[in-house]
Amino acid sequence: MIFFIISINGGIVLFLFGFKEYRRLSFGKNLIEAIISAFTDTFEFSSIGMMLIGLILIVIGIIGLLK
Fold it and tell me: Taking the domains of the chain in order of start, what are their residue ranges?
């Protein structure tokens, strides 16, 4: 159970950090960065990647707590 709570907290922090980076650049630059990083295996370090992984962690944590 503690794993799921940590997963939710980590997901929130990762999502907020990615959102802060996303707001720093324009949409086009973020999209280009996400496409390039997807092909260079650094997608999790792009702002869109951080937001996506954060959301996945939040969903995993919520599903785990509801089971």
Answer: 2-66
Interior/surface letters 20-53, b for 16+ CB within 10 angstroms, e for the rest: ebbeeeeeeebeebbeebeeeeebeebbbbbbbb
pTM metric for this prediction: 0.80
Q: CA neighbours within 13 Å on the CB side: how many for 20?
A: 6
Q: What is the distance between the alpha carbons of residues 67 and 65, in angstroms, rounded to a whole number? A: 6
Percent pLDDT > 70 in the chain is 100
For 9-64, the DSSP string reads HHHHHHHHHHHHHHHHS-HHHHHHHHHHHHHTT-GGGSHHHHHHHHHHHHHHHHHH
